[in-house]
Amino acid sequence: MFYEPKNGHGLPHDPFKAIIAPRPIGWISTVDAEGRANLAPYSFFNAVHSNPPMLMFTSESMKHSAANAIATGEFVFNLATRPLFDAMNISSGDQPAGESEFAAAGLEAAPSRLVKAPRVAASPASLECRVVSTSQLRDVDGKLLQGWIIIGQVVGVHIDEAYLVDGRFDTAGAQPLARCGYRDYATVTELFEAMRPTDGGSYTGGQPDR
Q1: What CATH code is carried by the domain that includes residue 70?
Q2: Percentages of the chain per state (helix, strand, coil), in multiples of 5
Q3: From its phi and psi, is residue 62 left (phi > 0), alpha (psi between -120 and 50) or beta?
Q4: pTM for the model
Q5: Is 47 part of a structural domain of the chain?
Q6: What CA–CA distance (Å, rounded) separates 69 from 72?
Q7: Which of 33, 37, 163, 188 falls between 20 and 30 A from 123, CA-CA?
């Protein structure tokens, strides 16, 4: 099939998010101007640069996380994992401003080092970020949308040393969550390694390598 999104897809459910999948989940913690903590997951999230490390999340309305990050210039990314799924899911609820998703989800908040926003203590990794760019999205006709993109530079990294194996972060061991289409999620449980042509070697198959 082929369709133009402006004309609709004719399917029972929009396939867009199922095609662009899996997507890492940006579990974003912030504080508001009064210092009250907020925590919410975003599925439009990813790393955008490595040196210096930067990441972004997009909010399809001016929600608390986006508003707080823009107002304070800071946020924290917390790695959402399979053991933390229920808490992550609870934190996606529509809590009134000022009410803590940490408390609602039964999560312990840990202090950050360089930013005011707390981090999820149980997360295997958290990245403290300072905002470097924000913008409201526009469509191809230049019309402003109810969507904002926030890009942050990572200024501090927390890693639970239980997930460091031979000097590498054990991604499969941490079991990161990913968002797929509809109400579907995925968990990373195994990896395979492949060499690039510029690495001077090639991957020849075999069992996935953790």
Answers
A1: 2.30.110.10
A2: 20, 35, 45
A3: beta
A4: 0.92
A5: yes
A6: 5
A7: 33
| Residue count (the chain) | 210
Residue 118 DSSP code = -
Residue written as tokens 């913008």? 135
Q: Is residue 205 part of a domain?
A: no
Residue 88 lies in a domain: yes
DSSP string, 128-192: EEEEEEEEEEE-TT--EEEEEEEEEEEEEEEE-GGGEETTEE-HHHH-BEEE-STT-EEE-----
| 74-123 pLDDT per residue, tens | 999 999 999 999 999 999 998 887 789 999 999 999 999 999 999 999 99
Over residues 146-169, the mean pLDDT reads: 98
Q: Which two tokens stand for residue 171?
A: 């991604």
| Domains contained in the chain, number | 1
Residue 209 falls within a domain, yes or no?
no
Average pLDDT over every residue of 33-52: 96
Each residue's pLDDT tens digit, 116-148: 999 999 999 999 999 999 999 999 999 999 999
Q: Copy the structure tokens of residue 187.
A: 């968990």
> What's the domain range around 123?
21-199
Lookup result for tokens 């989800």: 105
